[in-house]
Structure formats: C-alpha cells, structure tokens
Amino acid sequence: MHTVVERELELKLVLAPERSIPVPARLTYRTEDPYAVHVAFHIGSDFPVHWTFARDLLVEGVFRPCGHGDVRIWPTEVDRCDVIFVALTSPDGDALLEVPSAAVAAWLEQTLRLVPPGTETERLGIDEGLAELLAPLPADDLWLNDLWWPDESQDGDA
Predict the structure, then answer these.
(1) Which helix (H) or strand (E) holds 79?
(2) What's the CA gap between 93 and 104, in Å, rounded?
(3) Rounded to an integer, what distance in angstroms lies between the CA atom of residue 153 and that of residue 157?
(4) Which of 70, 83, 94, 120 gets the highest tally of CB atoms within 10 A of its CB?
(5) How confident is the model at residue 129 (pLDDT cuts 50, 70, 90)?
C-alpha cells in the first residue's frame, strides 16, 4: 500500500531584499518514491512548475545550510519568524523562496513517521522486482531441454 502526504502552503518568491510575492505551493511525499519530495509551484500559468529533490536535503535544511548546485536550503529568521530559504537554479532561471519553517517541519515529521530514515530501500520493492525479472518462464525449460543442445558429457574420445 502506498501513502501520499501533501501540504498546501504559501511561499514567498523573494524578488529583492524588501520585496516578495506570494506563491501557492503543494509539498508532496509518496511512499513509493521514498527518497524524494515533490513541490508544485502554482505561478498563475496553466500548469504548475514542478521540482523534485531529496527528502534528506530538506530535512537537513531545516537545521543547517545544505545543498549545492540546483537546490540549496538554509534556515534563518525574518522579522522574528523562523523560515527556510530555498534557492533553485535551472537553465530557465533562478528563484529564491522563503518557506515557513514550522509548516515544513510538521509536514516532514509526518513523512519521517511513515518512512523512517534508513528504511527507504524497503519501500522500493527492489527484491520483488528482481525476483519477477529473473523468474524462469515456461519457455526457459523448453530451451534448456531442447534436443539439439549438445551433450557435453560426450566429448568424442571413446
């Protein structure tokens, strides 16, 4: 059984030190994709902008600066409120988002209760997938027992 944990929240897209605009977003965690968090930003277009990155990155970013490259996260305080900054970089542009720390931490706690750190691999179903992939088929028996297969027990040296 797969479970989805979602949270709607309003982020702030930081345009300048004293200027930001609200951006509705949805955080999504799926137990069948246990290492990832998905964020959909609703920016007023027909389709939301989607980002996916490691859950561990967001967990760490609640407590200390982390990440490099496309996703960087760090906690800070703005107007005496705890927030998390998320910096996203893509070929289409860069974005700096201010996220309410308490809302993200509460949502992450739900995901961590469902799939504790270190147990993610169990949710992937790798063993079951490999067993299914490597399971012999009825045709395999025919091929292995085919009469034209050379009998290696007879080497011609009688």
Answers:
(1) none
(2) 24
(3) 10
(4) 83
(5) low
Instruction: Report the run of H or E that residue 50 belongs to, with start and end.
Output: strand 49-54
* Cβ contact 6:28 at 8 Å: yes
The three-point CA angle 8-96-16 to 5° equals 120
Show the CA angle centred on residue 35, arms to residues 132 and 74, nearest 5°: 170
Residue 70 DSSP label: T
What's the pTM value of the predicted model, to 2 decimals? 0.74
Task: Describe the strand order of the beta sheet including 93-100 as a list of residue ranges.
Answer: 49-54, 36-41, 19-30, 4-16, 93-100, 81-90, 71-78, 66-68
From residue 83, how far is each of 13, 123, 130, 146 by CA, in Å? 13, 31, 43, 69
How long, in residues, is the chain? 158
Q: Three-state DSSP class for 56? A: helix
Residue that is written with structure tokens 């809302």 in the block: 103
Three-state DSSP at 128 gives helix
